[in-house]
Amino acid sequence: MDFTGRPMKGYVLIDDIGMKSKKDFECWIDLCLDFNTRAKASKKKK
Questions:
Q1: FRET label pair with 1: which of 14, 18, 22, 28, CA 20 to 30 Å apart?
Q2: What would the 3-class secondary structure string for the chain be?
Q3: Band (24; pLDDT cuts 50, 70, 90)
Q4: Is the pTM of this model over 0.70?
């Protein structure tokens, strides 16, 4: 994702065409949930 001119790591922006059907939307959600269980937690700021 890129909101500020600096791409953010670990984010994906899905265009409307990627979510046209419920099946498409569920596919992206499933991929995200699967990745989330394997992702490393970021260090907490003091």
A1: 22
A2: CCCCCCCCCCCCCCCHHHHCCHHHHHHHHHHHHHHHHHCCCCCCCC
A3: very high
A4: no
- Is the Cβ–Cβ distance between 19 and 25 less than 8 Å? yes
Tell me the C-alpha distance between 13 and 30, whole Å: 15
pLDDT of 1 reads 65
Q: Angle at Cα 42 formed by Cα 44 and Cα 7, nearest 5°? A: 120
What is d(CA 39, CA 41) in angstroms, rounded to the nearest whole number?
6
pLDDT of res. 15: 87
